[in-house]
Design a protein that fits this description.
302 residues, alpha/beta, Methyltransferase, Methionine Synthase (B12-binding Domains), Chain A, domain 1, Rossmann fold, 3 domains, four-stranded parallel sheet, three-stranded antiparallel sheet, 7 strands
């Protein structure tokens, strides 16, 4: 029998991932030793190893690998066909369960358990799924309930800060390619909602772009020196309040006079009915459109 630390070392699978797979998919059933610690059998190790091989060699997700495992012996040539069958089933990822669990922990101001749930989510799903389908929806729910008076400002601020910490972790670990344009990302002064900006910034960081994240409530007139000092090529701005658009439009026009090559990309609900000259810079909340923007605005300039 092997401890979870030993299994993690043998298979190069983080212990938190092993526990997540065990909890979510019940693919292994370790016994408990005298001290209550998990002990894994050779069969458990072979199962975990098989799951890892499917993910690495056949490029399947963990949920697909588990589904394959439960189908019994499968010929190599039929794996692709079986995965396609899996995609057509009614299997649904229980994002909602994790969202509800995380929401309750955040409302209770429970830092440790909140981070544990987020760790579990990252172990089960790709980080894009976690951000778009769990963390951001939880924050939107928090914002709506705070506006209705169902939760306090302290609970909303605690939740926002904790989740933003998890976003910024990825900013640090994703690689930066020096040949790509540098970006500043901000919400103008008076704008405090920046989740959309963070998601778009994460998209750019995944591409290898250096993003200087200024966040909400940023004074625009202070940015000229930064643009020159850091040789900024792209300015990403998010706005939910349409009353801020006139000031923003004037500032963009001034920037264009000083820096004609500067690329602007705008997003947020504040631009829904925008019909001004800056409307051509607005990107919808759609990752496919973001990819198209990257190809036409960034790749072509490299």
């Amino acid at each position: 029998m092997y401890s979870i630390k030993k299994v993690s070392e043998m298979l190069s699978i983080p212990a938190v991932t092993i526990r997540a797979w065990e909890t979510r998919y019940q693919i292994v059933a370790p016994i408990r030793g005298a001290g209550g610690h998990r002990l894994y059998s050779d069969t458990d190790i072979n199962t975990l190893k098989w799951i890892k091989i499917q993910m690495e060699e056949n490029k399947v997700k963990v949920s697909e690998a588990v589904w394959l495992l439960k189908q019994g012996p499968i010929e190599e040539q039929s794996i692709e066909e079986t995965i396609e069958k899996f995609a057509m089933t009614q299997f649904r990822k229980p994002y909602e369960d994790l969202m509800d669990k995380l929401y309750e922990q955040l409302v209770d101001l429970n830092t440790f358990q909140s981070h544990e749930t987020i760790d579990l989510a990252f172990a089960l799903y790709h980080y894009d799924e976690v951000f778009h389908h769990i963390l951001v929806p939880v924050l939107y729910r928090m914002g709506e309930e705070w506006e209705r008076g169902d939760i306090t400002a302290a609970q909303e601020h605690f939740s926002t800060q904790l989740i933003m910490q998890r976003f910024t972790q990825f900013f640090r670990i994703l690689p930066i390619y020096s040949y790509l344009p540098k970006v500043i990302a901000l919400c103008p002064e008076g704008e405090h909602h920046h989740m959309g900006l963070m998601l778009f910034s994460l998209f750019m960081r995944k591409k290898g772009m250096e993003v200087i994240y200024l966040g909400p409530n940023t004074p625009l007139n202070d940015l000229y020196q930064l643009i020159e000092m850091k040789q900024i090529s792209v300015v990403a701005v998010s706005v939910t309040d349409p009353e801020l658009l006139e000031t923003l439009e004037n500032w963009i026009e001034e920037c264009q006079e000083q820096y004609p090559e500067l690329i602007f990309v705008l997003g947020g609900t504040g631009f829904q009915h925008c019909s001004s000259r800056i409307s051509s810079y607005v990107q919808p909340d759609d990752q496919k459109q973001w990819e198209q923007w990257y190809k036409t605005e960034i790749e072509i300039a490299i």
